[in-house]
Amino acid sequence: MKFKDFMSALDGKIKNVYLLSGAETFFIDKAREKILARLNVDKTTELLTFDCDAKPAVSEIISAIDSSPFFGSKNVVLVKNAPFFSEDKKIERLENILKDMQPTNYVIFTAKKADKRRKLYKIILQVGEVLEAEPLRAWEIDDWLNEKLQSIGKKLSGSARRYFNERLGILPEISLWYLENEFDKIALNVAGKEITIEDLQKNMLAPPEVSDFALADAVDERKAQKAIYLLKAQAKTPTKIPLVTTLLVNHVRRLLRAKYFMAQGVTGKRLGEPLEMNPFIAQKIGEVAKSYPEKLLEETFIELAEADFKLKTGRAGVEILERIIRKLCKR
User: Fold this and answer.
1) Phi/psi at 321 (nearest 5 deg)?
2) Would you report the helix, strand and coil content of the chain in percent, each value rounded to 5?
């Protein structure tokens, strides 16, 4: 079950068993806190927490899940980073307990990964609920963003929303905790209800991948001098050079894919689905792709792979990327 549906289901009858699995810790943390709130748990007397990264004894965890309440009216066990859903071990005792939980007992498992084929996973689907906490992509952010803006009593101007979407469009995945904290900061620093582009630029710290977006923009606009300036600014921190290379590789790949799909008759916002991007950003990529010869993009893709190897092995410096950037700008 996805996050929105999972949170809605928590408004109904509470189950005795939950599995919160996936890479997006924001969803897992929010779901866990809502479950505990719905159970009205006294965290000092009714909650016992195990972190499996600390390698507690499995027998101890199982005993805790099956124990009757001692001090409070309920027994709630939180098992963080549970390995039971990805390991090959069979834990029959745990399986049997979950099938027939005491009505006063509750257990919440969190796991980075969960194999849906495992018996334990299937049991939880039958007796409880499973949250699939997968990271959002840039084109999936609107629902989360609208809810966040509503919670802080703000709205984005049209131009600010486009700016925000464009900057996120470059990311393979998004940290919602990062966005949560940044918008909380904006809420404190912006007096009015409307958030402008200037407000975003002033108050929102961009992750490295978004900061590099300006470099790709400069290349697309054939502004070689600006692109080289941005490259050299990043080169002052050597660890950022691999990020710049990755940015350029991903951008060239997107342009090539856009040209391919446009040749098949897929244009405009319809490029969003095959490119797996926000439709508005995909449309912009399509327009930009028209200015690039396909042969140039293919040659550049190979040259960037070679540049990446040489940079990582110390056989070249940042000037190898500078040459590629100038070549793209001269198209």
Assistant:
1) -75, -35
2) 60, 10, 30
Are the CB atoms for 6 and 128 separated by under 8 Å? no
- Of the candidates 181, 110, 125, 126, the one whose C-alpha atom is nearest the C-alpha of residue 152 is 181
Other CB atoms within 10 Å distance of the CB of residue 331: 12
User: Around 120, how many Cα atoms within 13 Å sit in the side-chain half-sphere?
Assistant: 21
Q: What is the DSSP string of 41-101?
A: --TTTTEEEEEGGG---HHHHHHHHHPPPSSSS-EEEEEET--TTTS----HHHHHHHHT-
**CA angle, corner 324, sides to 214 and 248, nearest 5?**
45
Say which DSSP state 108 is in: E
User: Can you tell me the distance from the alpha carbon of 131 to that of 112, in angstroms, rounded to the nearest whole number?
Assistant: 11
Q: What are the pLDDT digits (tens) for 87-105?
A: 766 688 999 999 999 999 9
SS3 15: coil
Q: CB-based contacts of 55: which residues, under 8 Å, 6+ apart?
A: none
* Whether this model's pTM surpasses 0.70: no
Gap between the Cα atoms of 193 and 218, Å rounded:
32
- With 0-12 CB in 10 A as exposed, 13-18 as middle and 19+ as buried, what is 59? exposed
Sorting pLDDT into bands at 50, 70 and 90, what band is 71?
Answer: confident
Pairing of strands 155-156, 129-132: unpaired
